[in-house]
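I am writing to request your help with a piece of structural work I have in hand. A protein sequence and the structure tokens that stand for its backbone fold form the material at issue. Please examine both parts with care and let me know of anything in them that strikes you as inconsistent. The record follows directly beneath this note.
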Amino acid sequence: MRIGYGWDSHEFKKGVPLKIGGVALKHTHGLAGHSDGDVLLHALTDALLGAIAAGDIGGYFPPTDPKWKNADSAIFVVEALAKVREAGYEVCNVDSTLILAEPKIGPVADTIRRRLAELLVISPEDVGVKAKTPEGMGTDNAAIAHVVVLLEKHEDEKRMEVAAAVLDANQHMDDVVKDLIGDVSVDDKPLELERTGKKRR
């Protein structure tokens, strides 16, 4: 199994649409960013890439590249998931915590959970979305996201590993048996010569 952790933050800005977890939310301000500023999807992307030691979101989707200007962050998650699968893993479950003063996430948490599950091709029951207010942190004008993912080997990879382990075990057993047979043959030769009355030369 592999564990991945992702963290991201974006500042609120007036006149920008607000998207969190792939869901459009009604609010006076949105999150500023080169793409759509989706803080939760950015943290999720980093968690997926980090779990397989494949770098971070900036290495694949740099903010200096005009190609990703105003891009839907769901693209980042899908690409990161593809790399996870290429590495032979699949997502087991996800847990996340959002820290922001407004808007309230509770009423839309289930919608966000379902959207994340859709992007990751897992059950909503395997996705956690929580929200906290930034009391005493001085970050009322920003949104922060923490995400943890758990990966497990794909079933095909598991079967291949088991098959390889069985082959290794069989080869090891063959080598041990050959060594034992060799030792017995060498040790028994003098006894056989003695019984036949022949002398060794």
